[in-house]
Amino acid sequence: MRILSGVQTSGKLHIGNYFGAIRQFVALQENPANECFYFLADLHAMTTVHDGATLRRNAFEVAAAFLALGLDPSRSVLYRQSDIPEIPELAWMLSTVTPMGLLQRCHSYKDKTAQGIVPSHGLFAYPVLMAADILIVKANLVPVGKDQKQHLEVTRDIAGRFNDTYGEQVLTLPEPMILADVAVVPGIDGRKMSKSYGNTLEIFAPENELKRRVMSIVTDSTPVSEPKPTRGNTLYALLKLFTPPADWPATRRCFTAGGTGYGELKKRLLGLILDTFREARRRREELERDPGAVEAVLRSGRERAMEVIGEVMADCRRLAGTGPLT
Ligand code: ADP
Ligand code: TRP
């Protein structure tokens, strides 16, 4: 089973990204029947980041984060989208069989422009590039969050149209694998944690910065002695995420029984976050000092991905009639 997923390199990774995506990507490599391909979607990130140094740095950040958090390059293939010009080449081919109406129906374009992202052609064509990412490696399964489900449907539709147009089943229709939504991680202001809300707890932030962010988690004004609400309480939800199950009844009692202040609970949360990511944070620091090691992983990932991509593109070019005569 070939698995593929991509992460936009539009900022630093936060604990929502970890529980909602990365942890699950890393777990998939444990099954030897899975052939996992993960890539840094830097061309997609260009729909929002227009500063070269930032885009390049972000790709490094995401690659280093994946490696620090347990992605094993001997079991998974990790590469950078922009290292493979065949991806935008296939995207162009696909765009010539993609009806405008299909893209006009996509929610993500409407949602993003409503958020203030420039309504560029790239943003509109985003799902076609995503289809190329998936189809170019003949992925069978694509783990994504619920918000990406429509993009998978678009990918299947486009693949079918390409195959029908050229009369050969060259492109494999992928299945979505909707990631377990057990953890919609709240941000420090109580909304969904997201870099676009500026409410994140970054996995690799310096300790004092992380402390400042945890201490500013929004809480209510229940007096220390009183029981604290649990529903809709961000601190409660975050503690639940990080507390080992055996310790949870005691922590839960701190809320329901009263007598424990929010300040104390925030310190406990900070300690748990640091413990959970201690090893990953150490590895991340090592990689910061050795960017060449990260580049080497991406280079070998590109080579491994190209083994499949070379074959798929040879078929697509042959059918489309691009490239040399023979
Ligand atoms: P952001 O909202 O910060 O821009 P992305 O949209 O780039 O994050 O999300 C990347 C991945 O992380 C997606 O698979 C998404 O489902 C997951 N994810 C992001 N934020 C959260 C969250 N608060 N809780 C759970 N999963 C999340
Ligand atoms: N659009 C995805 C997101 O915003 C990122 C992405 C780009 C992707 N290409 C992909 C995910 C291909 C899965 C497969 O999260």
Report on this structure.
The protein has 326 residues and is mainly alpha-helical. The protein has 2 domains: 2-184 and 291-320, HUPs (Rossmann fold, 3-Layer(aba) Sandwich), CATH 3.40.50; 205-276, Tyrosyl-Transfer RNA Synthetase. The chain has 14 helices and 5 strands. The strands form 2 sheets. It has a 3-stranded parallel sheet. The chain has a two-stranded parallel ribbon with strand order 4-5. Helix 3 (52-68) crosses helix 13 (278-289), helix 3 packs across helix 14 (291-320) and helix 10 runs parallel beside helix 12 (262-276). The longest helix is centred in the last third of the chain and has 30 residues, at 291-320. The protein starts with a strand and ends in a 6-residue tail after the last helix. It binds adenosine-5'-diphosphate (ADP) and tryptophan. Tryptophan is lined by residues 4-6, 8, 41, 44, 130, 133-134, 142, 144, 148.
